Amino acid sequence: MLLSGRGSNMVALVKAVHQGVLQELAEVAVVFSNNPEAAGLETAAALDCPTASLSSQGRNRAEFDAEVVEILQGYQPDYVVLAGYMRVLSPTFVRAFRGRIVNIHPADTHQHQGLHAYEWAFDNQLPETKITVHLVDEGLDTGPILAQHPVDLRGAETLAEVERRGLAVEHRVYAETLAELIKGELPTFTMEAVPTPLTA
Ligand code: GRF
């Protein structure tokens, strides 16, 4: 599992592994962070998860990702689960785990990609937003959608309330979707490699 920050989704997933929908289906090989100071790392350790980190600060993306791939391969993960990992993965990374990288995005990825999805929903006074769990390809939140779940935002008067409602759904549906994925209950997607441009 990969994170960069507080790790509330990581906590929900670890709980689901310990005594929820992921019990006897999954184990956490390692919680990795590109930020050695991430609060989520400490929380993961307190939950008895193996942890690892490598600072991405000032690093070239492709070189950094090549090192992360090597670290992760040492744990032989079946899936790479992004839980608030605040970096766009390089093609090197995506190639190494193609079709096995999962992300959760707090909006409908057809409507909003990238950061600040709850702010976007709040600023636009959306009556509803959608939590999306998707496979990761080379694009920014463009991979095949595994599941989408609505969040009722009617009457949410602050951004904090929008986030609170959204995260409650995230924490439930991420584990549920991963369980379905592991059990082979979701459609399979062929993820073709995106041709590398000839010019850099
Ligand atoms: C979540 O909203 C997740 O959907 C997004 O980043 C946030 C991470 O939060 N990708 P947390 O670290 O899991 O609390």
Describe the structure.
By secondary structure, this protein is an alpha/beta fold. It has one domain (2-182): Rossmann fold, CATH 3.40.50.170. Helices cover 35% and strands 16% of the residues. The protein contains 6 helices and 7 strands; from the N terminus they run βαβαβαβαβαββα. The chain has helices at residues 8-19, 39-46, 61-73, 91-96, 117-123, 159-182, and strands spanning 2-3, 31-33, 51-53, 80-82, 101-105, 128-135, 145-152. A 4-stranded mixed β-sheet has the order 4-5-6-7, covered by helices on one side. A 3-stranded parallel β-sheet has the order 1-2-3, with helices on one face. α4 links the parallel β4 and β5. The radius of gyration is 17 Å and the shape is globular. The mean pLDDT is 96. The site of 5-O-phosphono-beta-D-ribofuranosylamine (GRF) has 13 residues, from α1 and β5.
Topology:
Elements: E1 2-3, H1 8-19, E2 31-33, H2 39-46, E3 51-53, H3 61-73, E4 80-82, H4 91-96, E5 101-105, H5 117-123, E6 128-135, E7 145-152, H6 159-182
Parallel strand pairs: 1-2, 2-3, 4-5
Antiparallel strand pairs: 5-6, 6-7
Helix pairs in contact: 1-6, 5-6
The structure holds 5-O-phosphono-beta-D-ribofuranosylamine.
5-O-phosphono-beta-D-ribofuranosylamine is lined by residues 3, 5-9, 40, 83-84, 104-106, 170.
